[in-house]
Amino acid sequence: MKIKDITTCIEEIAPLNYAEDFDNVGLLVGNYSTEVTGVLVTLDTLENVVDEAIAINCNLIVSFHPIIFSGLKKLNGKNYVERVVIKAIKNDIAIYAMHTALDNSIIGVNAKICEILGLKNQKILIPQKNTIKKLTTYAPNNHAEEVRLALFNAGAGTIGNYENCSFNTEGFGTYKGNKNSNPTIGQKGEFHSEKETFISVIYEKHKEKNILSALFSNHPYEEVAYDIVSLDNLNQEIGLGMIGELKEEIDELSFLQLLKNTMNAQGIRHSKLLHKPIKKVAVLGGSGSFAIDNAKKMGADIYITADIKYHEFYKAENELIIADIGHYESEQFTKNLLVEILTKKFPNFAIILSKKNTNPIYYL
């Protein structure tokens, strides 16, 4: 088992293409071709986590947060980031992080929070833009079905709950090959007209490599004519935050107490209570002040996130309750999610949940 086998599995649920532009995700330390002795899953990669990996013979740390976030200009061990990287390299330990790639996954960080809170009818709070593309190609009529099916099998043509979606129309194409050409149909140097099918499909951008490979492998022409355009359509399967509903509405104080107990929060900072029952709940793990307006627009009764500043609580404006449960607390179950996924995929391999609490915040 190589590191690439593990990361490929992770990227099936959290493609790195969907990480936010500011982020630093993927294999931060190590080589994809390295044989894996064991995987340690953690929320943060700190020195004591690397020590833990060494002690239990795990040479791959899968971390939610990236230890290297901005560029490293020196490796002198003067801060915790440099010390972690130096220790990992010295002990041949690789570090992989997914951060906002998993935040944007429909079965990622926020889906896990919804599961813990027992929410149903879940939807993405902020669907990500520019993730959908459209491919148009032209194939001879007697090869159109073969090309179309190859595109479907590579992941193209999925719209919501529907698969194998495409638009097709018949027309004719023309071409004339030069002296270096080797036309599949017709003769070089001669003008040719061929009855063709126009095929149009959409796809999620992380599938593009496989889809183009399928197109070129199954299209009969020496030179394949195709167009790719990016669409402004929102992707309801990829994005930040989630919103769902409780099975039954509950009063505010009871829900806040339930939230505190369920998320193991040492305390909850919240905006003014509105004396209305809680039914619709929006969540966003980590720093989520930027999504307050989205939660309001979606009709949430309460918005659960972290790192809310003083003046940002005013943004509730008597429309909902803003609840700050703490950054670590909002993301703590992420590592459990990753262990569940990896253990299911690799049941006979050592996938270990870190025992280290990496929360840097303490309460009196």
* Tally of alpha and pi helices: 11
User: How do the SSEs run, as a string of H and E?
Assistant: HEEHEHEHHEEHEEHEEHEEHEEHHE
The radius of gyration over CA amounts to 25 Å
Give the low-confidence spans: none
> How far apart, in Å, are the first and last alpha carbons?
45 Å
Q: Biggest sheet, open or closed, and with what strands and sense?
A: 6 strands, mixed
Number of strands: 15
Helix content percent band: 25-40%
Shape: globular
Strand content: 25-35%
Coarse structural class: alpha/beta
What is the residue-averaged pLDDT? 96
Description:
There is one protein chain. This protein has 364 residues and is of the alpha/beta class. It is 27% helix and 28% strand. It has helices spanning 3-13, 47-55, 80-90, 100-103, 109-117, 144-153, 208-218, 252-262, 292-297, 327-331, 334-345, and strands spanning 26-29, 39-42, 60-63, 94-97, 120-128, 132-140, 167-176, 191-204, 226-230, 235-250, 269-270, 278-287, 302-306, 321-324, 351-353. The strands form 3 sheets. Strands 5-10-12-13-14-11 form a 6-stranded mixed beta sheet. Strands 1-4-3-2-15 form a 5-stranded mixed beta sheet, sandwiched between helices. A 4-stranded antiparallel beta sheet has the order 7-8-6-9, with helices on one face. Helix 6 packs antiparallel against helix 7. The model has no long low-confidence stretch (mean pLDDT 96).
